Structure formats: structure tokens, C-alpha cells
Amino acid sequence: MTIWRGQFLAAAAVSLLLTGCDKPAGGPRAGGDTIKVGEFASLTGSEASFGQSSHQGTLLAVEELNAAGGLLGKKIQLLTEDNQSQAGQSATVVRKLISSDGVVAMLGEVASSRSLEAGPICQQNKIPMISPSSTNPKVTQVGDYIFRVCFLDSFQGGKVLAGFANHTLKAKSVAVLKDVKSDYSVGLAKFFTDGFTASGGKIAVEQNYSGGDKDFNAQLTSIKAANPDAIFVPGYYTEVGLIALQAKQLGIAAPLFGGDGWESDVLSSIGGAALEGDYFSTHFSPDDVSPAAQAFVKHFKEKYHAAPDSMAALGYDSALILADAMKRAGTTDGAKVRDAIAATKDFHGVSGIITIDANRDASKSAVVVTIKNGAFKYVETIAP
Ligand code: PHE
Question: Three-state SS for 232?
């Protein structure tokens, strides 16, 4: 098996990707012949891999929708803004998309903390927002205009990963190493801990870091002393790669495992052989045999010359769900589109079948993968 996504991280790719998103001449609200949809994403910075993948999936969906005639007699125009993976920037770019560009709906973000930053602005302006892949429960609790098309961390941590540690790893005691700056990491650590201890498991030790840290030796030394059967690292790929390397350098043999935040080909370029035999849970595998998934994988490969990952699949689905809702609403009016998204039922997305529930969330299966020769290998699917 090859690594899921190859050559996407060249800096040049960013500018190429953005060619579909040029602003119309004539300023705000110009271009009434198109439906303007905003997208905010981490196209550069520490989670660039998330933003680029998600954007590629979203853009492919918009291009396919437009090729098939567009929506409500118009073409969809995707306006994409980069938040540089930085706190504060999502609020800035989302305000701009709404007030200067006049978008009628918002797609984003991958990282929960950044969706939480933009959510209140969309809610206040009555602009429906669909997060493709933010899994922290708080994201959609912001208000009735905020939706997601992925599962939640209560499921990912409390059921998928706690069950995996129990049944597959057969771990009795687990160390937890979380990122205190990330809503995602803090939430996932808690849901895992609750689920794992409820089924009789023990947390050997809990340690913290802050996203952006490079040296984890102090935390790993405490973890080594506690001698856990496995180490749970609910973080994003940049830090996870370094943690895996430094754990091996300290002579820690216990396997590491984590959640969807691990999923990036950059993970293996940082952690290399130190990650062999480790595990993580995520949303989508290009090995999924459903016809919708296979058609998506084929079209994605034709356009980008690499296989799609979870963020790409969920970005694609977020755009399709929005378009489907606008079609049913027959308008781009915020309140009516909101109601139509809320009424989404049994939508056959590429990442699974999507029904939006009363909390504006989706209930979906998760997959667990293991790392073999630097590539991600499918292990199992866990249903909600
Ligand atoms: N679920 C993560 C979060 O909420 C983001 C993520 C989604 C990362 C999908 C990788 C894949 O922060």
C-alpha cells in the first residue's frame, strides 16, 4: 500500500489550489450570478495538511456540482481563506467572507478550536456553517446555524478508542498525553478516560503539552516510570510525530495510539520508523468499497494524483450536503437553508450515510488503521 496522500504539501500547491477562488471584480455582493460559499481552512502553518486536504475535497465537489449545471440556475463560487493554522485568524477571515464578500454559507473547519472560533460569527450573522470534520461536541452547541457531517469525540474517544484499547490492545493501564491548548485534544482525552475507566481500565498517568512544543522528554520520562501498557496521544500529527520519535529514543516500547488528528502523510515524514505498529482512529479509508466512496477516490485521484484522506472525503461531503439543502430549500436564504440542512436524512455521502440529528450532528462509523512501513493500513470499522 502506498501512503494515502503524496505530494500535496509543496508550497506551490497552495496557489494552484486557490485558482478556483478568485474574487469577482466589483466588490461586495457583486457577481449576483453566482452562489458565493465561503471556506476557511488551515492552508499553511502547523496543520496545513488538514486544510489542504479538506480544501481539495471541497473544491472537487464544487467543480462537479458546477459541471452538472450548478445550483438554482447559478454556478457555485467557492471563496477560500487561509487562517494559517493560527488562533484568531479564523475569526478574521470568516468576518471578511461574510461582510466584504457576501457569502451565503460557510464551510469549515477541520480543527475543533478553529470551528469554535468562527461558529459564533456565523451564528450571529445567520450564515449556515457546516464543519466537515471538527469532532468536539461543543462545536455545534454554539447555535442552530452550526452543523457537522462527521462523528463526535464522545463516540471516537468513549467508544471506538476505549474499546480498541480494551479489546484489541488488551491494555489494562494506559498513559494519556494531551495538548491543553486544543479543545479537540482535551475533549478526546476526557472521553477516552471516561470510557476506558468505566470498563475497568486504569489511567497510569496523565501528562500535558501545548501545541507547538518540540520537546516532550519530561512528560515521556514520567510516562516511562509509570510503565503503562499503551500510550494515548490525542493530538495533531506534527506533535504526535515528535512524541513517537522521542518515546523510542527514551526506550519506551509500549505502543502509541490516537484519534483522527494523526491523519496526515506528514505524520510519517516526522515520526518515521518510530511509528511502526502504532494505531489511530479516523473517518474514512480509501479502501472503503461503497460505490460512492470508490467513485470519489477515482475522481480525486484523476484530479490530484493521490488518494484522498478523511479530511478530503469530509470536505467533499460538506459541500454536497450544503448544495443538497440549497436545492431542497429552493433559495440561498440563510434561515431556509438552515432548516433544509437540519432536515438532511440518509444522504449517501462518500464518507458514509449522513442524517443530521436534533443536535445538528451526524452519527457515523469510524475506522481504525495501523502504521506499516510508513503507510496507513485498515484494521477495522466500528459502528456507532
Ligand atoms: N477532528 C479533529 C478536530 O476536531 C480534526 C481532524 C479531522 C483531524 C479529521 C484529522 C482528520 O480537531
Answer: strand
Is-same-fold flag (28-151+289-364; 153-282)?
Answer: yes
* Residue 287: per-residue pLDDT: 83
Contacts of 90 (CB under 8 A, 6+ apart): 40, 83, 108, 109, 114, 115, 117, 118
Helix (H) or strand (E) holding 51: helix 48-67
- Fold topology of 153-282: Rossmann fold (3.40.50)
Cβ atoms within 10 A of the Cβ of 332, count?
Answer: 18
Alpha carbon distance 308, 53 (integer Å): 8
- Tell me, in angstroms, the distance from the centre of ligand 1 to residue 238's CA: 13
Query: Residue 58: what are its φ and ψ, rounded to 5°?
Result: -60, -45
For 23-69, the pLDDT digits (tens) are 444 334 334 799 999 999 999 999 999 999 999 999 999 999 999 99
Cell of 226: 509509570
Distance 202 CA to ligand 1 centre (A): 26
User: In 10 A of CB 124, how many CB atoms?
Assistant: 12
**Ligand 1 centre distance from Cα of residue 136 (Å):** 9
User: Which atom of ligand 1 lies nearest, measured to the CA of 236?
Assistant: 8
28-151+289-364 CATH: 3.40.50.2300
Nearest to 160 by CA among 121, 111, 207, 196: 196
- The rounded Å distance from CA 110 to ligand 1 centre is 5
The residue whose CA is least distant from atom 4 of ligand 1 is 134
| Ligand 1: lining residues by beta carbon, under 6 Å | 50, 110-112, 133-136, 184, 260-261, 263, 282-283, 310-311
CA-to-CA distance for 194 and 186, rounded, in angstroms?
Answer: 12
Q: Are 101 and 36 in contact (CB under 8 A)?
A: yes
The whole model's pTM is what?
0.92
Which of 5, 134, 265 to mutate for ligand 1's pocket (most ligand atoms within 8 Å of CB)?
134
Distance, CA 55 to ligand 1 centroid (Å)?
14
Residue ranges in the chain whose pLDDT is less than 70: 1-31
Q: Which amino acid is at 294?
A: Q
Q: Where are the domains of the chain?
A: 28-151+289-364, 153-282
CA of 125 to the centre of ligand 1 (A): 25
Cβ atoms of 42 and 114 within 8 Å: the answer is yes
